[in-house]
Amino acid sequence: MSYTQNVLDSLNARYPYQPEFLQAATEILSTLQPAIDQNPDYERYKILERLTEPERIYSFRVEWLDDKGQVQVNHGYRVQFNSAIGPYKGGLRFHPTVNEGILKFLGLEQILKNSLTGTPIGGAKGGADFDPKGKSDLEVMRFCQAFMVQLYRYIGATVDVPAGDIGVGGREIGYLYGAYKRLTTKYEGILTGKGLTWGGSLVRTEATGYGLIYFTDAMLKDRGESLKGKVCSVSGAGNVATYACEKLYQMGATPVTVSDSRGFIYDPNGIKVDVLLQVKGKERASLARYAELVPSAKFTPVSEYAPNRHPIWDVPVYAAFPCATQNEVTEEDAKALLKNGCKCVAEGANMPSTIGAINEFLKAGIAYGPAKAANAGGVATSQLEMEQNAGMTSWSFEEVDAKLLKIMTDLYNNAASTAREFKVDGNLVLGANIAGFRKVADAMLAQGVI
Do the bridges between strand 319-321 and strand 298-301 make them parallel or antiparallel, or are there none, so unpaired? Predict the structure, then answer.
């Protein structure tokens, strides 16, 4: 039995109650054996066992008062997974589904994603089972302050620098940063995604969506293809989806779908980004509201979805961009996309495709950009924000955007050339996994058994 399979069997035996983590570990480790065969030291020094076990996990109670004066209790976490190539870096997620297994899957992915950016940052993830939806600004503020009372002692500008994720946007980052500053009296870059007037970076809000399309553009150019004039589907309705839509328009493409937890919008005339920003950013409303404002749009509620299916992927398109959440593209969804002529899938969310779906895309030979490569623009720009904070300076939008474009183009080229090195041209799953892994593994070897 191979080394990678032995490690996977051990993980399955130890963590049967963490399916998302096991899925991420399977997707990664199942591609790494060719790199292991090249360098026996990876097995000799137990790199995979060390890579898949977090360096430390903090778990804590978060107590706060709601607007009625009632005590509420949530569970918070920070998974500091790997610091071989730099300080821990990864988002905070506030969502009812948050648990240790979800954060371990996200943290494991983050290690390789951050490595692929070419910047010196390690992998981490954190969050809480708190749901900001339906909460007042004051309730969100009180929760963030209580969360930071627990978290602040474990983070620092050269130790661990969290960012936002699902449920943690500019509002939450502001409250978290204010609480950190009050607790420590330090004004330092310990969070990214900050406001522009107090240490934030231009392009950070747009970065994951823009970076996704930059990566896709590089991937398609390598095949002699282009997004220009193409119809595309996008899922999600947050920053990633919104700015992916905006950049698609700039590339001459037309996004015709977006989605949220209540359903999806199909607008054959193209998604109106300004209306999307109003509905989701200002009103914080369901996408059903978008359909009220745009007569050409149709809203399909979740109640009409078939089991294990997401009808957003039934819309015939040239390229699909899953930007919502994990496992939103099933094997059946992938088959529907391919049947309708989809030639490109690039992932803006973390692990949005099941392993069955990934296998369908690889078997079909379409242009497929896996999440850890295609959606790395957000964390890459977070590192650029850290760099600006360290130098106590700020760069123009054009300067940051140019750096983002170069990072995503270089990232694609690295993953593609690694795939070619291992004789699987076009398989960016293997190419990205091995390219990200070797950098981290070699650093772990160099630093000894610690």
Answer: unpaired
Q: Where are the domains of the chain?
A: 3-187, 207-365
Close Cβ partners of 293 (under 8 Å, ≥ 6 residues apart):
275, 278, 279
Q: Please name the amino acid found at residue 232.
A: C
Q: Which amino acid is at 177?
A: Y
**How does pLDDT run across 257-296, given as a tens digit for each residue?**
999 999 999 999 999 999 999 999 889 899 999 999 999 9
Cβ(235)–Cβ(311) under 8 Å? no
Q: Rounded distance, CA 360 to CA 339, Å?
A: 11
In the residue annotation, 125 being an active-site residue is answered as: yes
Whole-prediction pTM value?
Answer: 0.94
Q: Which ranges in 161-206 belong to alpha helices (H)?
A: 170-184
Q: Is 188 helix (H, G, I), strand (E, B) or coil?
A: coil
Question: Can you tell me the distance from the alpha carbon of 107 to that of 78, in angstroms, rounded to the nearest whole number?
Answer: 10
The span from the CA of 55 to the CA of 83, in Å, is 8
Cα separation of 123 and 84, whole Å?
9
Fold of 207-365: Rossmann fold (3.40.50)
Q: Is 75 helix (H, G, I), strand (E, B) or coil?
A: strand
User: What mean pLDDT comes out for the span 238-253?
Assistant: 97
Structure tokens at 219: 């991937």
Catalytic residue of the set 89, 104, 113, 125: 125
Instruction: Give the position of tokens 């809480």.
Output: 128
Query: Is 3-187 a CATH 3.40.50.10860 domain?
Result: yes
DSSP 282: I
Structure token digits, residue 427:
């398989």
Q: What is the pLDDT of residues 369-389, one digit of tens each?
A: 999 999 999 999 999 999 999
Question: Are 254 and 366 contacting, i.e. CB atoms less than 8 angstroms apart?
Answer: no
Rounded Cα gap, residues 27 and 18, in angstroms: 14
pLDDT digits (tens, 9 = 90+) for 283-293: 989 999 999 99
The reply to whether domains 3-187 and 207-365 share a CATH topology is: yes
